[in-house]
Amino acid sequence: MSETRFYAALPARGVIEITGEDRVEFLQGLVSNDVTKVAADRAIYAALLTAQGRYLFDFFIIALGDALYLDAEASRLAELQRRLTLYKLRAKVALSDASARFVIAVAWGDSTAPALGLAGESGAAKEFAGGIAYIDPRLNALGARFMLPRENSGALQQAGFVASDADSYDRHRLALGVPDGTRDLTPEKALLMESGFDELNGIDWQKGCYMGQELTARMKYRALVKKRLLPVAIEGGDVAPGTEITQDGSEAGEMLSTRDGRGLALLRLEAVEAAQNNGADLKAGAAIIKPERPGWLKD
Fold first, then answer.
1. Is pLDDT at 170 greater than 60 in this prediction?
2. Which of 187, 219, 172 is nearest to 4 (CA)?
3. What CATH number should be reported for the domain holding residue 275?
């Protein structure tokens, strides 16, 4: 049986370029992961938080040449650049929107990493078609990500990948229970420890201080997590993002991104336990919500 590997461009993603001799130190004091680990052969996933420890932005950090690049949501790219510029102060860095130069793409399916000549570990990276290819730092099963010069955007098809689309990749993501930016993480409200950032390699616990670190660390070490972002099966009808999920008439959570009977929901853990152990249904309107436990989730 022949192997099938797919690729898709992600037009909802954009790119910020960060240049200057202080670029690593500048980001290191701001984001949740260890920027010193980013290199030509490694990419990372990270978040920028409020001072109170609430989610603002998440992105991938890539090194190419003498610059760092952020793969982030295109619709919020200008706001991310503005926010980062506020913290620039005297740092010797320059930030610019590089979305006109680069396209973000993904690939998934059979033996994606070996097909690209990449090691299988999360974040493993290499130059590819004038840009960079890397195993998704969050979860190997997601496949690979790419930042490619727009003039080389056909390189994946030339490498034997079959053209697909962003919707198909979204189904793949939802099947694995991985959040997708502000579709699943509410700015100034979501918490990293409720949203899988620890398990999805978005936090480095050994690095120095960063903005919002205190609350994140306290939730981890004092076991204060009461809610979780979980994959769910939706039975009995469509459910719009933002719909309240109830259990026995009481609020139990909120539906987030959905597609084709699957989705992600932020759920109270005690409600999940009651659904699993006592048969107390979780409902969103007329639909029944069936929470699942992704293989990557810690206890």
1. yes
2. 172
3. 2.40.30.160
Of 131, 160, 177, at which residue does a domain stop? Answer: 177
H-type alpha helices, the chain: 23-28, 77-86, 112-116, 155-158, 166-176, 213-221, 269-278
Are the C-beta atoms of 60 and 130 separated by less than 8 Å? no
Separation of alpha carbons 291 and 281, rounded Å: 10
Mean pLDDT of 32-48: 98
Q: Is 44 helix (H, G, I), strand (E, B) or coil?
A: strand
- Separation CA 232–CA 224 (nearest Å): 23
The secondary element (H helix, E strand) that includes residue 254 is strand 250-259
Instruction: Using the 3D structure, point to which of 158, 177, 196 is the last residue of a domain.
Output: 177
> What are the CA-CA distances from residue 179 to residues 97, 132, 207, 244 (Å)?
24, 23, 24, 18
Q: How far is CA 88 from CA 74, 82, 93, in A?
A: 21, 10, 7
Q: Is the pLDDT of residue 2 over 60?
A: no
What is the average per-residue pLDDT within 216-242? Answer: 92
User: What length is written for the chain?
Assistant: 299
Predicted local distance difference test score (pLDDT) of residue 12: 98
Mean predicted confidence (pLDDT) in 203-230: 91
User: Quick one: tokens of 255?
Assistant: 């539906």
Which residue would you say has higher pLDDT here, 94 or 89?
94
297 found inside a domain: no
Q: Is residue 299 a part of any domain in this protein?
A: no
For residue 139, is it within any domain?
A: yes
